[in-house]
Amino acid sequence: MELRLTDPYGPGAQGTTGVALRIVGELDAIISSAGPYAARTATADIPMPRIAEALGMTEKAARSRLHRYDSPLRH
User: Fold this and answer.
1) Domain range spanning residue 68?
2) Looking at the domain assignment, is residue 25 inside a domain?
3) What is the pLDDT of residues 28-75, one digit of tens each?
4) Taking the complete model, does pTM exceed 0.90, yes or no?
């Protein structure tokens, strides 16, 4: 399966690399905005084994991801 990106921003983007970087930037902004709330809500309401299963990863990896989402200084 080949992924093809089209430019939803008009002719100003610099090919698929420019489009991909814009999309990643938008996703990063969404995660920065919604991530802390989602991480805190999930860990308050859902047992970690179920979170890990939903994410398709180990509990250790799920904890790490939720910690990253909830950290103010994400890297």
Assistant:
1) 35-75
2) no
3) 999 989 999 999 999 999 999 999 999 999 999 999 999 999 886 554
4) no
